[in-house]
């Protein structure tokens, strides 16, 4: 086995490996932890060329990290892996499953992964690879299906021991319902039969029977070739196949006609007794065919087989026939060579890994190929000797004299050192005189408020300079301490004033029980009369802030006062539904919900919020082919690009004209269209309406009889819970409760397309069950709303 041989070689290499070689591999292995794909590709290229199998296999986990990266980076990594797998497949055979094709992989990624799977096929990996390739038959791309079937044939030709297993897999595909799959499978089976046809006589008989079922030209051409090539194994079936093909000769395609013509010649040469008449009949049909290729082929064959008698006699004619027959047997009955394995990326193999030429599959300007291994190993003494742990550079070069940064020779260093010493001494003397003069000036100062500046110490040390052996000079450094001034008075720091406490602005709005402001407690005097009755709490209904107004005293009623309920509030949006499933959208999923707010285009329009999310990158998302008769629609803005695992929200505006009409449209991308539809519920066609309890009761008295419907439910323990549930599925305003009947909840709304049409909903607790009453001018809409609410509250 190839893996076992390589393992044995790696064990020998470990014992015979040069220390420098081992050091290079160990240093490069650390770089496999890098997050840069180019570094990983470079290390993998190095490991493939110089590393044993044990170290080379460490590249596979590093490569796997970049197979979920951007598609461009995946392509570069897989292109390098494809070449490495063709030369050293043992590097990646343990990790064959990470090269399986995902449903959202682009075409160029799928081709590379199929090529890698063909290279990694062996006795140990052929099982999962064949099962994976067999599952690709159901892919939506027919081109990819054909490539997967051809990959099965490549696996069989790469490993002859697995040819039988691959052949049985292809025979299973012959019974597939798709004609293109059957045609491609037959074409691959034809290639596999050429390797050892004598062991597959049953397969050849089965292929000949398919000749009368398959209708695709490519498959029929392959089947006719199989019958003619292996005619001796099926001596009774081959003449009958020619007879059946002669009946349908005129309706066949051009390539099938040419192959039938070849079949007739082969059978006439091998079995003229049974096929002579059929051969002449097919020649006559070909002579008058509409295609000139078929006519020319038939005329050539007729000229060879049906030559007129010459004046030389029968002996010359018989000799000519025997010679012609020998030549025709060499042309038509000669053994065909076994086809070789086709590698679509074979041009990459001689090019250097990681180069631009390797990626584009041809040599570009400036390309340099990788040099060959040297025949003689380089001298190891050119590399620096390894140092002991903790050893410094000074310890290594202690025997060498110390030099300055600019010391190029000994003479220059001596002169430079002497000149530097002289200049330092002059500078120190000058600085000392300046300091003494400055101290005298400070002593003569009479201003007591001046702060004395303490002079700094100036220490000058003269370094010992080692010069040449002719002259050595030493210079001593002198320290001068400036005199401290006698009268020095430090000015005392001015104490900072304590910060005044800042007034709390929120206290301006606080009132005492009597409604008067108490000065001195952070309140604005005289402000109680202006701000006493204000409340800074807003309730959001339909996307707009509605003030609750001044709070009422407990003893007062709510007659004539408009407001909303303090506990039960309307939701921002309705329940979310699925517009496009990710499985149907090939990774793109769309969800929708009706938002409880007024449209910016018209109050009659309903706002629909769309949520787009994709597991793959999707470009140019827009709406097209809207089919909504009677519905005014404002589509969402075009989305240029939606990256993988990104969520984008957009809004549509629709005017349903007060009815639950289905709106059909297409969500389009760059190359796909998905048909979807939206149907509003009766609760989404409403808009909240704020009114007082007195107005609600008076309007309800007017909307009785046929305008009133009701239903009961026992699924809730309180009327408040039922009111909250109705508020989730209907865009209504829950009005303020009446202190006389706090368990009764009143909800009011108006139709979006007609604001004068009111919808009143009353929720009342009757002990064992809850009663919901709906009052509306539109009796049909009232009935639909009742059916809808009765279902959602029970669910």
Automatic annotation (TrEMBL):
Q: Which Gene3D superfamilies match?
A: Leucine-rich Repeat Variant (1.25.10.10)
Q: Where is the AP-3 complex subunit beta C-terminal domain?
A: 498-661
| Compartments in which it is found | Cytoplasmic vesicle, Clathrin-coated vesicle membrane; Golgi apparatus
Q: Where is the composition biased (Basic and acidic residues)?
A: 381-390, 480-489
Topology relative to the lipid bilayer, per the entry, is: Peripheral membrane protein
- Residue span of region Disordered: 370-531
Top-rank taxon of the source lineage equals Eukaryota
Q: Where does this protein have compositionally biased stretches of type Low complexity?
A: 492-503
Which one GO biological process term can you cite for this protein? vesicle-mediated transport
The entry's keywords: Cytoplasmic vesicle, Golgi apparatus, Membrane, Phosphoprotein, Protein transport, Transport
Q: What is a single Pfam family found in this protein's UniProt entry?
A: AP3B1_C
Here the segments flagged for biased composition (Acidic residues) are 409-427, 437-450, 461-479
Task: Give the record's GO CC terms.
Answer: AP-3 adaptor complex; clathrin-coated vesicle membrane; Golgi apparatus
Family statement: Belongs to the adaptor complexes large subunit family.
This molecule's function is given as: Subunit of non-clathrin- and clathrin-associated adaptor protein complex 3 (AP-3) that plays a role in protein sorting in the late-Golgi/trans-Golgi network (TGN) and/or endosomes. The AP complexes mediate both the recruitment of clathrin to membranes and the recognition of sorting signals within the cytosolic tails of transmembrane cargo molecules. AP-3 appears to be involved in the sorting of a subset of transmembrane proteins targeted to lysosomes and lysosome-related organelles.
Q: What protein am I looking at?
A: AP-3 complex subunit beta C-terminal domain-containing protein
């Amino acid at each position: 086995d190839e893996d076992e041989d390589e393992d044995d070689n790696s064990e020998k290499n470990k014992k015979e490996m040069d220390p420098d070689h081992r050091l290079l591999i160990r240093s490069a292995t650390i770089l496999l932890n890098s997050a840069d794909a180019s570094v990983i590709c470079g290390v993998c290229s190095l490991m493939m060329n110089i590393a044993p199998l044990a170290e080379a296999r460490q590249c596979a986990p590093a490569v796997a990290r970049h197979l979920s990266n951007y598609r461009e980076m995946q392509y570069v990594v897989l292109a390098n892996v494809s070449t490495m797998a063709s030369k050293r497949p043992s590097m990646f055979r343990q990790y064959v499953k990470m090269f399986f094709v995902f449903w959202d992989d682009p075409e160029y990624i799928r081709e590379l992964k199929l090529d890698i799977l063909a290279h990694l096929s062996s006795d140990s990996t052929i099982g999962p690879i064949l099962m994976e390739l067999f599952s690709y038959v159901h892919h939506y791309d027919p081109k990819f299906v054909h490539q997967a079937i051809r990959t099965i044939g490549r696996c069989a030709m790469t490993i002859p021991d697995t040819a039988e297993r691959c052949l049985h897999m292809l025979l299973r595909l012959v019974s597939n319902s798709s004609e293109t799959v059957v045609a491609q499978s037959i074409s691959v089976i034809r290639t596999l039969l050429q390797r050892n046809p004598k062991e597959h006589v049953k397969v050849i008989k089965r292929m000949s029977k398919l000749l009368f079922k398959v209708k695709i030209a490519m498959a029929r051409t392959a089947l006719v070739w199989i019958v003619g090539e292996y005619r001796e194994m099926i001596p009774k079936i081959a003449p009958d196949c020619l007879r059946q093909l002669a009946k349908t000769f005129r309706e066949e395609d051009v390539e099938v006609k040419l192959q039938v013509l070849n079949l007739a010649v082969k059978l006439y040469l091998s079995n003229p007794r049974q096929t002579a008449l059929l051969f002449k009949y097919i020649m006559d049909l070909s002579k008058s065919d509409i295609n000139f290729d078929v006519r020319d082929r038939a005329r050539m064959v007729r000229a060879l087989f049906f030559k007129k008698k010459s004046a030389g006699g029968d002996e010359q004619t018989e000799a000519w026939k025997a010679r012609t027959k020998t030549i025709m047997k060499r042309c038509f009955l000669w053994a065909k060579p076994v086809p070789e394995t086709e590698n679509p990326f074979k041009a990459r193999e001689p090019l250097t890994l990681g180069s631009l030429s390797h990626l584009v599959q041809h040599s570009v300007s400036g390309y340099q190929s990788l040099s060959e291994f040297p025949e003689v190993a380089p001298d190891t003494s050119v590399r620096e000797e390894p140092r002991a742990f903790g050893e410094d550079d000074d310890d290594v070069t202690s025997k060498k004299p110390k030099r300055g940064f600019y010391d190029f020779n000994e003479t220059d260093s001596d002169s430079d050192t002497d000149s530097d010493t002289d200049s330092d001494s002059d500078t120190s003397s000058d600085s000392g005189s300046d300091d003494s003069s400055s101290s005298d000036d400070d002593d003569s100062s009479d201003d007591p408020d001046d702060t004395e500046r303490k002079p700094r110490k100036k220490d000058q040390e003269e370094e010992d300079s080692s010069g040449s052996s002719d002259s050595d000079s030493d210079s001593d450094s002198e320290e001068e301490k400036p005199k401290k001034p006698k009268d020095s008075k430090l000015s005392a720091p001015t104490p900072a004033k304590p910060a005044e406490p800042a007034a709390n602005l929120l206290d301006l709005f606080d009132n005492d029980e009597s409604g008067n402001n108490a000065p001195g407690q952070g309140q604005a005097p005289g402000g109680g009369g202006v701000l006493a009755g204000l409340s800074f709490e807003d309730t959001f209904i339909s996307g707009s802030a509605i003030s609750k107004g001044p709070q009422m005293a407990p003893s007062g009623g709510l007659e004539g006062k408009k407001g909303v309920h303090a506990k039960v509030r309307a939701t921002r949006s309705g329940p979310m539904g699925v517009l496009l499933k990710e499985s149907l959208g090939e990774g793109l999923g769309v969800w929708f919900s009706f938002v409880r707010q007024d449209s910016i285009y018209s109050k009659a329009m309903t706002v629909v919020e769309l949520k787009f999310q994709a597991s793959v990158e999707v470009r140019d998302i827009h709406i097209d082919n809207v089919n909504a008769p009677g519905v005014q629609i404002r589509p969402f803005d075009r989305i240029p690009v939606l990256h993988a695992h990104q969520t984008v929200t957009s809004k549509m505006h629709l005017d349903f004209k007060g009815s639950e009409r289905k709106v059909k449209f297409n969500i389009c991308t760059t190359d796909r269209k998905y048909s979807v539809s939206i149907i509003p519920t009766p609760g989404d066609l409403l808009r909240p309406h704020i009114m007082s309890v007195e107005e609600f009761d008076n309007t309800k008295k007017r909307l009785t009889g046929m305008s009133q419907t009701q239903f009961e439910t026992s699924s809730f323990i309180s009327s408040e819970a039922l009111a909250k549930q109705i508020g989730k599925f209907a865009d209504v305003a829950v009005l303020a409760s009446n202190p006389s009947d706090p368990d009764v909840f009143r909800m009011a709304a108006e139709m979006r397309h007609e604001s004068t049409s009111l919808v009143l909903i009353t929720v009342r607790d009757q002990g064992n069950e809850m009663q919901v009453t709906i009052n509306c001018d539109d009796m049909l809409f009232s009935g639909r709303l009742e059916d809808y609410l009765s279902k959602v509250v029970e669910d």
